[in-house]
Specification:
Rossmann fold; 8 strands; alpha/beta; two-stranded antiparallel sheet; six-stranded mixed sheet
């Protein structure tokens, strides 16, 4: 396959994966993408009104997505948002407690009932992300999961809202997870805060 054929296949497969995003609630009911974004927006509005926080966790590329999203949520949408990506925290918890607890332990300490935890995993099966989901639920937090690869992955049924990307490509899963988070954020900014995300984040009507 030449580069020209590859580039076309890459684009075709990428847009197919976006079109096939599946969203379900905690009971397994299918919401559709728009329904998932609408429900996410309701959670974000409640968080802001109650002065609650968002915690976003992920490994590797998903950690980078988490950091990016957290900054945007507090800087652009006015909602407190944090990650646990500090190198000292990660190595301390991994060494002293165990890698499976690298996100569960800080969630146990810092999360409160009513906060939101967003767990990102391309495979949906990383042990530390699974445990973060379980801890979020035990703490009384809302939970949104973003996963991919196999439809029966471990975190997909755990959230109040579960976004599943039907792809076996790491690149597609990661890019589309970022797309989903940006859609949540931008829906809040555009529909609630009257910020024109399509035009350099200017105030609508300016």
């Amino acid at each position: 396959m030449g580069v020209d054929e590859f580039a076309k296949k890459y684009s075709d497969e990428f847009f197919k994966a976006i079109e096939e995003i599946e969203v379900s609630d905690g009971l397994g009911k299918h919401l559709g993408f728009v329904g998932g974004i609408e429900l996410s927006l309701e959670i974000l509005k409640q968080l802001q009104n109650a002065n609650h926080k968002i915690f976003i966790v992920g490994n590797g590329g998903s950690a980078a997505i988490a950091s990016h999203a957290a900054i945007d949520f507090w800087k652009n949408a006015g909602i407190q948002a944090l990650t646990f990506n500090d190198s000292s925290l990660l190595t301390c918890i991994s060494n002293d407690i165990g890698f499976e607890d690298v996100f569960a332990a800080p969630l146990q300490m810092f999360a409160s009932s009513g906060d939101l935890v967003i767990c990102i995993s391309s495979s949906g099966n990383s042990a530390d992300i699974v445990k973060a989901c379980e801890t979020a639920k035990l703490k009384g937090c809302s939970l949104i999961t973003l996963s991919g690869f196999m439809p029966e992955n471990k975190i997909r049924p755990l959230g109040n809202i579960n976004f599943y990307v039907n792809t076996l490509s790491y690149g597609f899963a990661e890019i589309i997870h970022q797309y989903i988070l940006h859609c949540m954020l931008d829906a809040k900014m555009y529909c609630e805060d009257r910020i024109d995300i399509f035009n350099k984040n200017l105030k609508l009507g300016s």
